[in-house]
Amino acid sequence: MTSSLRNFKLFMLYLFLSILCSSCLPLLFKAFQGWQVSIAWAVSLNYLACTLLGTFFSLGPGISSLPLLRPWIPFALLQGLLLAGNFYLLANTAQRAGVAIASLSSRLSVAIPVLAAIPLYGESLNLLKSAGICGALLALYLGSAPSKGAAQGLRLQTLILPIIVFFSFGLIIGSLSVVALNIA
What we know:
Helix content: over 70%
Distance between the termini: 34 Å
Number of domains: 1
Strand content: under 5%
């Protein structure tokens, strides 16, 4: 097996595992409700574990290889805090509005960086891109809009959470691209 084929298979495995794990998050957050797990503690401990593991695996031969003085570190810390808040919002959305709506609002948030790329990077907006963005927004609306009979029992907070998750995840994804291209 050639090196490039092996790298491609490894990449596809990582991609599959990434999609699988990120798709399980709303399900896990919904299960936390039944298990009476504190969302704040779960997200905090997750971030602590990720920071420790990431630091451990990023260290090279010496401790000096840790890039603490890089210009992107403050942005990484800020994005980490914002992402932790977004996971807290995602968990609340999964528990109050449902797993499907939480997943839909977080996944369709990629429409925001696509829209931002048009003025920021001079991307063209063609019919296919426009249809995709409109389809994402329509799917978010149709997925989170209550049925006529259920509208009376829903609180405004339950309807607003998916929209906040949509925009907050979209802004995080977009800001990652801006920082990667301009600072890192």
